[in-house]
Amino acid sequence: MRLDGQTALVTGGASGIGKATVLALARSGASVVCADVNEAGGAELVREAAAAGLAVEAVGIDLADPASTRRTAAAVLARRGRVDILVNGAGWGGIQPFMETQPDVMERLIAINLGGPVHLTQALLAPMIAANRGKIINIASDAGRVGSSGETVYAAAKGGIISFTKSLAREVARHTINVNCVCPGPTDTPMLATRAERMREAFLKAIPFHRFARPEEIADAILFFASGRSTYVTGQILSVSGGLTFAG
After folding, report:
1. CA-based angle 214:219:223, to the nearest 5?
2. Model pTM greater than 0.70?
């Protein structure tokens, strides 16, 4: 699945699933922009990629701030002209009962997990339309497909990403732009490490494969949607959860 000559932008690329995705795309020949609020982590990833001979650069982005998001998009387009592959991979959340979730936390959850991807996609879409080609891969969550106790607002935002994927896919199909969505289940990332031990154990018991996904396994699904092997696939939602939610 070669991506030579293509520019990819991955949000949340400094760690976890995002980092695995950056490296997978770069190994396939893409020139990758890692966009992350963690600029130090992005710089470290650039050094790691350079040591492996991979074309990766890093830019800062604050998806909670629409103006910052659009400035980053404008700066990338000024240098690159067009983004061929956009991976809206950044996410943020925690475990807290809905009635204990403060309004400012609700706003931030919605801004990062839904508003940021929507603003960034709109800001990068015009050159894709002009070129009559492009791949957009949104990373939601199985929480957005089937719900998740203690993550109600996060799940609502990720559910919004799923609907955004389907609606945008319909709008841009006439421009030969593919829009698809990957919904990871519990994955061995820094975010999962913040969850209580009893919750991680409960997940392991519920997952038919009895293990967490590796970030690279989620990246493989993203790579499929980014590649030429999915040219006739759009508006689709793919759960990568080890069978945790196959009945959902």
Report:
1. 155
2. yes
> On the CB side of 131, how many CA atoms lie within 13 Å of its CA?
16
Q: What pLDDT is recorded for position 248?
A: 46
- Name the residue with tokens 């650039």: 46
Pairing status of strand 85-88 against strand 56-60? unpaired
Task: State whether residue 63 is helix, strand or coil.
Answer: coil
Q: Low-confidence residues of the chain, pLDDT below 50?
A: 248
Buried b vs exposed e over 118-138: b needs ≥16 C-beta within 10 Å?
Answer: bbbbebbbeebeeeeebbbbb
The answer for residues whose C-beta is within 8 angstroms of residue 6's C-beta and 6 or more apart is 29, 30, 31, 84, 85
Phi, psi of 88 (to 5 degrees): -85, 85
- The label of the residue with tokens 């109600």 reads 152
Task: Enumerate the active-site residues.
Answer: 154
Query: What tokens appear for 150 in the block?
Result: 């203690």
Residue spans of the domains in the chain: they are 7-240
Q: Are 33 and 76 in contact (CB under 8 A)?
A: yes
How far from each other are the two terminal CA atoms of the chain, in whole angstroms?
30
Q: Which CATH number fits domain 7-240: 3.30.70.120, 2.20.70.10, 3.40.50.720, 3.40.50.300?
A: 3.40.50.720
